[in-house]
Amino acid sequence: MLYNNQPVEVISTKSVLGRSISQIKILTSGKIIEVRSEDLQSEKASVTPAFLQFKSMAARIQNEIGSQGIIAPYESNVIPLPHQILALEKVMSGSFMRFLIADEVGMGKTIEAGLVLKELKLRGIVKRTLIIVPVSAMSQWQMELKKHFNEKFQVYDSGYIGAMSRMVAGMDADNEINFWTQHNQLIVSTDALKPLTQRQGWSDERIAEYNRTRIESVVKADFDLVIIDECHKVGGREANVGRYQMAEILCNAVPNVLLLSATPHRGKSDHFRRIMGLLNSDAFTGSDMPSIAELEPYVVRTEKRQAIDYTGKPLFNKRNTYRIRACYDEVRHAKQKKLYDHVSAYVRNGFGIASAQNNPYYYLAMLVFQRVMSSSTQAVIDCMRNRARRISEENVRRKAMTSLDDVLEEGVIGEQAEYIASETGAAYAGESGDLQGLIAEAQDCLNSEVDIKLETLLNLLDELKQKEDNPDLKFLVFTEFTATQRMLCKELKNRGGFNCSFINGSMDHISRGKALKEFKEKTQIMVSTDAAGESLNMQFAHIVINYDLPWNPMAIEQRIGRVDRIGQPFEVEAYNFMVNNSIDDKIYNVIGVKLGLILAELGIDKTADVLDSTIEVDKVNKLYLTSLLDPSKFQEESDKWLEDIKNKLNDYKSTERVLPVTDSSKITVEKTDSVRYSPIPNWLEKMTCAYFDDNKIPYERTLNGILVKEKNSDPKYYTFDTKESLENPIPEMLTVQSDFIQRILRKAAPITRETPVPVLKINNPEQVCGTFMLWKVSARNAYENQYKIAPVFISNEGDSFVAYAARFWADLSMGEIAGSVVGNAPDGSMIFDAAEKNAEQTLLDVYNEMEQEINNHSRTMKQNKEKAYSFQQRQISRIGIETIRNYRMQKLQKEYDEWLDTFGSMSQVVPELECLMIVKVENG
Questions:
Q1: Cα(533)–Cα(528) distance, rounded to whole angstroms?
Q2: Residue 194 needs a FRET pair 20 to 30 A away by CA distance; which of 52, 73, 288, 486 works?
Q3: Which residues contact 553 (CB under 8 A, 6 or more apart)?
Q4: 327 in any annotated domain
Q5: Judgement on whether residues 348 and 488 belong to the same structural domain of the protein
Q6: Cα-based distances in Å from 642 to 592, 598, 834
Q7: H/E element, 253
Q8: Does residue 428 sit in the same domain as residue 465?
């Protein structure tokens, strides 16, 4: 029977007030409702061979999914690498879902986190997820999760959180809305939630309100999973740091926790124990470095040297780094050399004034100018013009000033620097006049000379195109300043004939995505500020040019990491620019050359991890300043710095093995073969085309996939190929979890004894005649559902052909059986009854095996639930904010009591037997 064109089973019929009412079960959803009997329709009298192919393939796909231990890799638009599948398996096998994924830089931790998230959702463990990431990575996380896993996350940036908090603050308590519950999947920045203890000019009430609409409201939003990226940044120098308090509160309150960091230990045992304590406070007390045995249940780590690709080859190629000196010509660059000397004098004078006045912001402004003068003449002009204009105004806007501590601690500069330098007030009466003189000199220089670094860059680009014999070779060029970026885009086109794309911090993630696509498909050069130094992937290029060297040496690693990633087929080449005899050149000789020798001497090859764990940006700043202000002491300072780094590297070397590492013997191509060579994409395509054929929906196969042309709707492209979806954004990638596939799968509903039994006549006189059936046997309780789909073929003589049934199923689903439907069997109900009796006898052992397994799982679940309850009690008791602690403790107790009360009945296993298809088979 049908109700609203959906197949249903009539359970019972009764008369109510003279109306015939039927209780029905909707077979696509299992929902039971009551409807008027007159609204039920008979099913269509006959079906097509395409419909039989569609239903048999839908069952085959369902059976394949049900047989997998892990499902997420089959439901994603990405083929995981061997180490990524191992990570997923380990995380999902734990008693608690509280893990640190500590793979080395560039190993795809975002993909691993996405796989875990997808698996938890598919298993019904997680519905609400909060992801906490550095602000620069928010958009990238959002795009990656949508692209690879079809998971939609809402980004709550500072502006949105602030606006919503102000709105909530104006409501009375009875009408207050918790805006953190508006979306089930959220991404926020690391600093958006950290609680405040004090802020200049704020009352205790205002601070309490701030915390209430952020961290307290987030906890009450009842997230099931929290993911913290770059978790080493929340460890803090001590436990009372705001970032750590935020992480501790959330990790104590949320049952499932995933931490991500390539460098969680950083050679510091107290910091590392704080990080691990977020997973289990009891397991990581004390102050010494935890042992491998302590960490093993909580940590997943694969090193680059272990990683292999789908063919078993090493995953990462060699990287080459070169220093490029831009050398002044005494004649052609005389004005530039003179300008450099004059700006240096201005900066040295400014540092002296900043020191005498104890003015940290003016100190910072001079630090910025010291960097600008090494970038470009255009950057000097723009920065000085902005500064001259601002200091001529009466009111200098200081309230939006970036924190000096943040800049010095994190190495933030570049685009923020241009704002910092312009917004800082004048330090002495004649500064405006000095700036005007330097601006005029710089403008004269710009009008009459070609920038020395630009000249060197153009020569290098031509050399590299010739060297690689590729006129369309792509280059990723990094600068710290937007003024230099604008100049490069203009001059590279006018003087070199290059088409350029650009990315900077003023662009939103949509604009960045468009620029990235343009670079990949059309332009030769991407000129980027450090806005692209994190998060954006550009494996289609392999040459990185650091036109400006960043303050923080780790920023170079981040820049090169845009191309030195999984999927890079070439050796990566990085070219570091500097003006000969400049401060940058001296610093590079220390950091790039001498530090490299120390790393080689100590046998350390994981440069990115090591630098991130040992180099302190403020000490690098000191080297820059010494080189500028007191060159005679530079050698002494640099030697002292190198000795300090060497000692830290020795400490690092002694603790780098503190993390348990994946067993290399388990990282094999077989891990990915089941996903890489999974039949599911091909089967999905077969099923979809059969559905189109049965429903007379016009379509055609194209290079981009399947083009569907339904009436009164725009053409749609679909693909089932993961690689195609990654390389070509036009077709929509379809997986089992896609809305479209789920919608048509629901049409492959079970049948009942009232469903007509079609007769399939096969044009083969040797065809075995009989009845082909597909039966789904299920064992389920409230917590788990196991099922298997079994093909059955009974000959007209009553013989059961097991092997033939499986072959017939495969051939029918692939459309390889030539035949036609010649009507329906006259005794369909009798055929169904006999088939059901046969299935019950045949599949009893299959059911008993599944029932026993589910019972074993239930006993384990009860034990784990008791452990988890005790564990969460201890975690929650450590929450420092009383209102949050009480709320979570009461909620935990209520949920646990309710769970215990219902566990006995809800763990009982219920059998179910459904017929998915019956076909009478005749020969021709």
A1: 8
A2: 288
A3: 591, 611, 615, 620
A4: no
A5: no
A6: 11, 9, 85
A7: helix 242-253
A8: no
Which pLDDT score is estimated for 45? Answer: 62
Q: Strand 299-300 relative to strand 98-101: parallel, antiparallel, unpaired?
A: parallel
Q: Which residues, 6 or more positions from 602, have their beta carbon under 8 angstroms from its beta carbon? A: 646, 649, 650, 653
Structure confidence by residue, pLDDT tens digits, 280-289: 877 787 667 7
Query: Is 466's pLDDT higher than 80?
Result: yes
Distance of CA 193 to the CA centre of its chain: 20
Give the residue carrying structure tokens 């169904």: 832
Given a contact cutoff of 8 angstroms between Cβ atoms, the answer to whether 294 and 301 are in contact is: no
Hey, what are 238's tokens? 């001590």
Digit-coded pLDDT (tens) for 218-248: 888 889 999 999 888 887 666 567 788 888 8
Instruction: State the residue range of the domain holding 631.
Output: 582-658
**Is residue 19 located within the same domain as residue 59?**
no
DSSP letter assigned to residue 553: H
| pLDDT, position 415 | 52
Beta bridge partners of 574: 321, 544
Enumerate the β-bridge partners of residue 576: 323, 546
- Of 745, 722, 746, 723, the C-alpha closest to 734 is 722
b vs e for 762-777, b when ≥16 Cβ sit within 10 Å of the residue's Cβ?
A: beeeebbebbbbbbbb
pLDDT tens-digit profile of 153-198? 999 988 888 888 888 776 655 556 888 999 999 999 888 888 777 7
Reported in sequence order, the residue ranges of 127-184 that DSSP labels E, i.e. its strands, are 129-133, 154-156
Co-location of 553 and 681 in the same domain? no
Neighbouring residues of 425: CB distance < 8 A, sequence distance ≥ 6: 361, 362, 391, 396, 398
Contact assessment for residue 307 and residue 667, using Cβ atoms and an 8 Å cutoff: yes
From CA 726, how far away is CA 827, in angstroms rounded?
51
Domains of the chain: total: 7
Q: Alpha-carbon torsion 92, 94, 100, 102, what sign? A: negative
pTM: 0.66
Output the CA torsion 200→206→209→213 (10° steps).
Answer: -50
CB 177 within 8 A of CB 168: yes
